[in-house]
Amino acid sequence: MAMGKYSLGSKWYYAPNKVAPIIFIVLFFISGALHAWQTIKHKSWRTTILLPWAAALMITGFALREAGAYDTESLTYLIASVVLIMSGPPIYALINYMILSRILYYIPYLAPMHPGRVATTFVGLDAVCEVLIGQGAWRMAATDMTDAQRRLGKNLVTASLSLQCALFGAFGLMAAQFHRRASRANVLSQDLKIVFYVLYISATVVTIRCIYRLVEYIEGWDSHIYKNEVYFWVFEAVIMFFNTALLNLYHPGKRLPKSNSVFLARDGITERKGPGWNDERPWIVTMFDPFDIWGIVTGKDKKTQFWDMSDEELERLRAEAKRNKRPVWAGALDPFHLWGERGYLGKYLVKKPIVSSGDGVTASDSVRKEEGKNEASGDAEKV
């Protein structure tokens, strides 16, 4: 299976191999189907639902590459293939973020940051990478554009890949720090250890691929790497298939809890069910302060520490969380939860009725006094 060499008139610079895309279409299709089956089997929707999607992006990209191999003068096939294949690996990275987030939900008392913020912070930055790649890859691949336009595309992709490498580095450090804490606390089961090892290997594979692309785009479209197809098949196709096969062989959905509400007690054995680790701060605040530094300074973060509560307290919190749970339609119409009695803006617009009782005491004062009496009587009954 010879790799393509320089071909006159080809938008790819070479004659793309016609056999390799078919092989990888089949391999990624099998892998994607297995991912979908295991996600359904293990009910790991929130953690691994994007695995089939990542495979689908790669499959579509290889299919367009195959079409381009028979029409090497078509710029459309080249651009679409490059954009789709380059969009797949960041999705695999995103899945790694979600896996770590689920582990932090499971062992919350050792988490370096709110588990939900792992997903939103890294995924938000990853989305920026996707936009930069989408805007840059097609410009650089478009051989009919001016050198200035292609340089802009090169700079956009380089910026995206540099940001991805920085994200992978920060992610790896966070995972390693948490892993060390959990090992010292002796709360890691064999399943969790396997998940961590797979996570490290997967993150390393995606990072190697990212470095390859970074070198390719820094050197430019006239470089040896860019004009030789063999590098693409080794450092993009083969290495990413290894990644997806690894995640199939050691599927995280099999080894992680099915719900964010399930957490491990400090004894490292008992599994308990809590209310879930919610973050009541406005979403914009969580983006700029993912570690809740302000909450740590003021002590407000103590309110979220449900893992040391009794079973009765956890039951009460679960019931309260169930009452306050927003319906699906409300989440769709108001995704940032701005309005309503508990909305970030709406709660300040709700007016409490103030009715004077004639002696200068308002109705709200009376309610507070009555609540105080009820609490006092309740304490007296306990005595």
Automatic annotation (TrEMBL):
Coiled coil: none annotated. It comes from the Eukaryota. Residues 366-383 have a biased composition (Basic and acidic residues). It holds the Pfam family RTA1. GO terms for cellular component: membrane. Keywords: Membrane, Transmembrane, Transmembrane helix. It is found in: Membrane. It is a multi-pass membrane protein. PANTHER family: PROTEIN RTA1-RELATED, RTA1 DOMAIN PROTEIN-RELATED. This is RTA1 domain protein. It comes from Amniculicola lignicola CBS 123094.
